[in-house]
């Protein structure tokens, strides 16, 4: 057991009282897995990711990584957001080094690490470019390279491809799968895109809404991970199962509102 979420509850105080966002979340993620949590708006996906990142604390329950309780952000967890969060006045190399600079890593070491991970994501030739000179997919690759420089145990991704057009998104899917397979990186990603989750992940946690709860855990066994698999009946079966599950619980949430 590598990353463990146990009996996690999260609520917020509002003018109308407490708003329960996450309820009794239990998940286990093994080293080297690619896990997606899928849910509609109101399922608490981003809130869950913030708990794992240590950016917020649960009301009840606990999250552990390698048996160590998570209480704050740390270099063992890299974070990639939907929007690239690159500094427009820094070039690609400087953006990639930025986190290491904040950690006080010596200049020579952070330059070497940033250069290495830019090569991993295929952007060595763009090290001197500014973000405005890059496409959306390239910007997201820089954000991923920056997250990898701390050599995290797990990469946390908050709908990282949601702002991309369909062709760039498909290209990024192939890129992240290749990166995962080459590095054996542990990835936990949240998304509302059911097809994206089926295509990328080993396992999927389907979240219900208001409050977010784990409705079902689904293991994904695809014969291949190429674009051709999306036309295969097994892919359609997984997609349809998830769509129906989310649709069903979306109706329940509306009726309970």
UniProtKB/TrEMBL annotation:
Q: Does the keyword ATP-binding apply?
A: yes
Q: Known Pfam families for this protein?
A: ABC_tran
Q: What is the recorded membrane topology of this protein?
A: Peripheral membrane protein
Q: Does the keyword Transport apply?
A: yes
Residue ranges occupied by any ABC transporter domain in the UniProt entry? 3-234
The Swiss-Prot or TrEMBL record annotates one GO molecular function as: ATP binding
Q: Name one GO cellular component term.
A: plasma membrane
Where found, per UniProt?
Cell inner membrane
Main subcellular localization, coarse class? membrane
The record's keywords, sorted A to Z, are: ATP-binding, Nucleotide-binding, Transport
User: Per its UniProt record, what PANTHER family does this chain match?
Assistant: ALIPHATIC SULFONATES IMPORT ATP-BINDING PROTEIN SSUB (PTHR42788:SF13), TAURINE IMPORT ATP-BINDING PROTEIN-RELATED (PTHR42788)
Q: Which family does it belong to?
A: Belongs to the ABC transporter superfamily. Nitrate/nitrite/cyanate uptake transporter (NitT) (TC 3.A.1.16) family.
The name this protein goes by in its record: Taurine-transporting ATPase
Task: Give the organism's phylogenetic lineage.
Answer: Bacteria, Bacillati, Cyanobacteriota, Cyanophyceae, Oscillatoriophycideae
């Amino acid at each position: 057991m590598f990353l463990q979420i146990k009996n996690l509850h999260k609520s917020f105080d509002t003018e109308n009282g407490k708003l329960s966002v996450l309820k009794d979340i239990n998940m286990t993620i093994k080293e080297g897995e690619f896990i997606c949590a899928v849910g509609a708006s109101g399922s608490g996906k981003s809130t869950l990711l913030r708990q794992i990142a240590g950016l917020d604390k649960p009301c009840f329950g606990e999250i552990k990584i390698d048996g160590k309780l998570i209480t704050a952000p740390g270099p063992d967890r890299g974070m990639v957001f939907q929007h690239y969060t690159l500094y427009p006045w820094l070039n690609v190399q400087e953006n990639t080094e930025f986190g290491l600079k904040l950690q006080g890593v010596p200049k020579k070491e952070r330059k070497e690490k940033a250069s290495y991970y830019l090569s991993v994501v295929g952007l060595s030739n763009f090290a001197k470019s500014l973000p405005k000179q890059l496409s959306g997919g390239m910007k997201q690759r820089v954000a991923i390279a920056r997250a990898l420089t701390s050599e995290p145990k797990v990469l946390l991704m908050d709908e990282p491809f949601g702002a991309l057009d369909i062709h760039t998104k498909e290209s990024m899917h192939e890129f992240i799968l290749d990166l995962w397979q080459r590095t054996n990186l542990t990835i936990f990603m949240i998304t509302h895109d059911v097809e994206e989750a089926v295509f990328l992940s080993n396992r999927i946690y389907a979240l219900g809404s208001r409050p977010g709860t784990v409705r079902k855990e689904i293991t994904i066994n695809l014969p291949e991970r190429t674009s051709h698999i999306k036309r295969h009946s097994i892919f359609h079966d997984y997609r349809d199962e998830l769509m129906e599950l989310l649709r069903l619980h979306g109706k329940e949430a509306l009726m309970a509102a």
